Inverse folding.
């Protein structure tokens, strides 16, 4: 039997890696990929809890998270593609037209 | 035995995600993330969530990541490799992320959870995970299910409208 | 001791299945050339061995000894991994197919879902092959092929829901056993037709083989590949054909069950039925013209999608009202 803390520790480590990726990378697609990693770390935590208490609610939530991640990926990439039409590369510190 | 497989899968996931965050080439990063998802599907099977493992591979690895790969191909990878990859405030960012992880661990790792229970079915038996999940999803969680389908419709329309080339003149 | 013994038995079964599959895939290339030749009133390979039976070995040797060219600006890691990414999902699906009542590598209660999920990973290999070649023609061919595969994967999945509703389980062994009286192809002809057409598109076979047609200027996503890597793509196509026919036999044609008064072992019936379906695949290649890309997409989304939805609706209605 795998103790719950293992799943929680794995989730926390993945969340850390994802958050570091979001905060440290300049390329917008890398940021989106790191967000996907963070969503997956939450999935791992939910599945760990579901296994601990033999309650399917955790797995149902994980399915909904995957659905929401699909929506967010689609819309985020659409925004990036339409941004990429005018300028050639998408580094987030160069998207500053509204800056005062 | 289960613990051994957990460590293998966990090492695979963490290794692949570290690989992903540090790659300069975005395609390599996306492929490393696919590898991480495959290991994660294995982890889900270990935790008794077989249907979720299938959904992870089918939707996440086989759908969302293909979408990412298509979009990356539309952007100029050759140019973006030669630019500076890391933010100017990377050190501060890493410190903030470590602080966040420490907070998460402090809250979740405190313990005091109710004791563990086992699944009432065994892996591979029918009726098993899928039937039980179907029961719960369509009775207790019917409303969120319908709302999720509305959300997917809205996201689909939104993505098409956003990415459409504006035909001027 | 139990775990080690079980693991060893599983490894032996895997070795047997993989060995048989690889051999049959190699000879499938020969079989295709022979059958198409005879349909076209000519003889096919006749020189190498008696009636050309050693032709696959000659082909294999040739491809093995050819120079392995990697384009200069190609992405080397991805270029090398892409053929593997196309071949491996085809082989992994064999692990859940029940070849006989007692011979299967494993039996999981999400078997059908596993098959769908793993075969959706085949798109990666094609997209990566087209991208890593660093050539415009490869990329265009790969994107077309990937778009075709992604669309028809949806219809494949939906067409499998019909038999799933009738059998009541995702476990492939249960689905085969549920066909004890009548095969599902008689209860779900619409689902079978859609499944067959979708698997033609999934495996890039005629009439959906625009990405790799001979009359096209270049060979699509495997333009820049030579030698052993090209052999992998070649073998991957035939391996995919075998896998989709194996799944069709398990789901629609009763798997390892045969006619009771002919005493043949279960897996022989399975292979016979697979053989008939593979013959139909090859027959179609010799007979049909090719769909243009927009005709292909139109056929899929405007014709097959409503059809498969109607099938699911009708099956559900009949099952609710009468069963």
């Amino acid at each position: 039997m795998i103790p719950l803390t293992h799943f929680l520790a794995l989730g926390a480590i993945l969340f850390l890696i994802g958050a570091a990726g979001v905060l440290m990378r300049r390329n917008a697609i890398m940021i989106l990929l790191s967000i996907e990693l963070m969503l997956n770390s939450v999935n791992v935590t939910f599945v760990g809890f579901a296994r601990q208490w033999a309650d399917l609610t955790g797995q149902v939530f994980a399915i909904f998270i995957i659905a929401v991640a699909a929506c967010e990926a689609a819309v985020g990439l659409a925004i990036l593609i339409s941004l990429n039409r005018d300028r050639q590369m998408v580094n987030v510190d160069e998207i500053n037209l509204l800056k005062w | 035995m289960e613990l051994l497989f957990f460590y293998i899968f966990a090492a695979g996931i963490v290794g692949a995600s570290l690989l992903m965050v540090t790659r300069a080439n975005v395609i390599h990063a996306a492929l490393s993330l696919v590898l991480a998802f495959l290991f994660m599907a294995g982890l889900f099977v270990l935790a008794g969530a077989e249907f979720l493992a299938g959904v992870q591979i089918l939707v996440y690895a086989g759908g969302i990541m293909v979408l990412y790969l298509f979009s990356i191909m539309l952007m100029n990878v050759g140019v973006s490799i030669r630019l500076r990859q890391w933010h100017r405030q990377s050190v501060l960012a890493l410190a903030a992320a470590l602080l966040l992880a420490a907070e998460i661990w402090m809250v979740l790792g405190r313990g005091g959870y109710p004791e563990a229970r086992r699944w009432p079915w065994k892996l591979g038996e029918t009726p098993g995970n899928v039937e039980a999940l179907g029961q719960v999803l369509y009775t207790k969680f019917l409303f969120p299910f319908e709302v999720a389908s509305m959300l997917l419709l809205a996201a689909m329309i939104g993505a098409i409208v956003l990415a459409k080339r504006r035909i001027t003149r | 001791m139990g775990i080690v013994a079980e693991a060893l038995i599983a490894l032996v079964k895997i070795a047997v299945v993989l060995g048989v599959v690889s051999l049959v895939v190699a000879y499938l290339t020969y079989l295709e050339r022979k059958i198409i030749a005879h349909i076209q009133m000519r003889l096919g390979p006749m020189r190498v061995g008696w009636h050309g039976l050693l032709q696959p070995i000659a082909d294999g040797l040739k491809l093995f000894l050819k120079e392995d060219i990697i384009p200069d600006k190609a992405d080397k890691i991805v270029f090398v991994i892409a053929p593997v990414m196309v071949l491996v999902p085809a082989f992994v699906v064999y692990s859940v197919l029940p070849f006989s009542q007692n011979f299967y590598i494993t039996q999981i209660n999400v078997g059908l879902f596993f098959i769908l999920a793993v075969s959706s990973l085949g798109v990666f290999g094609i997209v990566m092959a087209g991208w890593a070649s660093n050539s415009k023609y490869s990329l265009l061919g790969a994107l077309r092929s990937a778009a075709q595969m992604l669309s028809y994967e949806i219809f494949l999945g939906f067409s499998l829901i019909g038999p799933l509703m009738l059998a009541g389980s995702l476990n492939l062994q249960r689905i085969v056993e549920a066909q004890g009286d009548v095969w599902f192809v008689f209860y779900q002809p619409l689902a079978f037709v859609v499944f067959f057409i979708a698997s033609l598109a999934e495996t890039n076979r005629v009439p959906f083989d625009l990405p790799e047609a001979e009359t096209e200027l270049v060979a699509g996503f495997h333009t820049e590949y030579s030698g052993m890597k090209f052999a992998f793509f070649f073998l991957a196509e035939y391996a995919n054909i075998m896998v989709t026919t194996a799944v069709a036999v398990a789901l629609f044609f009763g798997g390892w069950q045969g006619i009771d008064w002919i005493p043949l072992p279960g897996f022989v019936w399975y292979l016979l039925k697979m053989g008939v379906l593979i013959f139909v695949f090859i027959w179609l290649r010799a007979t049909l013209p090719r769909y243009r890309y927009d005709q292909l997409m139109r056929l899929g989304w405007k014709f097959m999608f409503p059809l498969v939805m109607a099938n699911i609706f009708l099956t559900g209605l009949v099952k609710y009202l009468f069963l």
